[in-house]
Amino acid sequence: MHQLLIEWLTAFNLPYAPLIAQLAIIGIILVISLIVHALLHHAVLPFLRRYANKSSRQWPKSIIDRNLFSRFALLVQGILLQLQVELFLTGIEPLYSLLMVVSQVWMMIFTLLMFFSLLDVFLELSDKSALANQLPLRGIFQSLKLIAALLITLMIISVLIGKSPLVLLTGLGAMTAVLMLVFKDPILGLVAGIQLSANNMLKLGDWLDMPKYGADGDVIDIGLTTVKVRNWDKTITTIPTYALISDSFKNWRGMSESGGRRIKRSINIDTTSIHFLSDEDIAALKRAQLLTPYLEGKMQEVADYNAQLGCDMSTPLNGRHMTNIGTFRAWLEAWLQAHPQIHKEMTLMVRQLAPGPDGLPVEIYAFTNTTAWLEYEKIQSDIFDHIFAVLPEFGLRVHQTPTGNDMRNMHIAVSDR
Fold it and tell me: How far, in Å, are 144, 210, 211, 226, 244 from residue 240 at the CA level?
């Protein structure tokens, strides 16, 4: 076509016929490119956008929102440019080589951008997939983007300098140490992401507790280089991904999946309030339905044991006797067993810990039948509200360090004397 234009212009005795022919061909290429651009971006793309807005499915909207089609349209324009250059400018140097390099670089750039958009669309569509939520897809996709960007950059440089990519790869071998230093965090993050995924150590939505980094909340993002945690006070903590492999952290997922949340709290009993139960005390406690089976069984056990000893029972130093603290533990365990919000299939016990300056700790070790934080706290508070209120029925007192009011009352009592 170039030769035909030159011959036609020469017939009119026009000066600079070759230059005019080249400019005419460039104009034709430009006009065709503008027409295709107008059709794709001002006709097809608006139609697809209207279709996506009317569609009830998510993927058409994701394709439009992530610019997948617009980048595909620009890639098509690059392919069209290369075809026109080969058709109209073959043998015309250096214009042919220049436009071929431009078209190739154009196609590689928009191929890369289209790959990015495709990954973003897939990531957005996978948000509702239970299987995809098991994997740190954002970190994996960021790794793929980084690798693709490096490869495309290498290919663009090779096209610009007119050398094979293998030549550049050979030269990059000497720069390995520099590259390792520059891309240290992405490389460590990529390895950490693979380990987290392979070992099922962490996924989106997990409750992560990592005091070293001040993280205590839900995992909201697992990226190539960072993991974001929304703490319970609504602040955001960012943790390097590789730190989850090199350091220890606590994942509460097991608790959430078990269906029960542990209560492990003690109540300190004033040891001076512990004593043996009298017959009157036992008669009063028998009115408690939960205690009746325990009291009858325990009284028979103690009576049989003492009968075998045949010792003088007029003194508490001989034989066995029932205590208010032991009876309280038995009642509390039976009460927790009957509690509708305590998990019956998990460990439940009421035990004594070593006594100390703050009295005798009686610890409750049980699990609620819910893992929701607010419900768990309400259940735990209700249980201890009841325990504090019921202690006087057993003749027990809670140990409490004297307060300023106690000291004032003591001073007033001494002054009155």
Answer: 19, 12, 14, 4, 7
pLDDT in the model for residue 258? 85
CA distance 102 to 26: 14
What are the residues whose beta carbons fall under 8 Å from the beta carbon of 141, sequence distance 6 or more? Answer: 119, 120, 122, 123
Q: What does pTM read for this prediction?
A: 0.59
CB 261 within 8 Å of CB 255: yes
Contact between 81 and 33 (Cβ < 8 Å): yes
Residue 197, amino acid: S
Q: How many helices (H) does the chain have, and how many strands (E)?
A: 17, 8
Mean pLDDT of the chain: 82
Encoded tokens for 395: 């003749």
Other C-beta atoms lying within 10 Å of the C-beta of residue 103? 20
Distance CA 110, CA 379 (A): 58
Model confidence pLDDT, tens digit, residues 199-252: 778 888 888 999 999 999 999 888 777 889 999 999 999 998 888 888 889 888
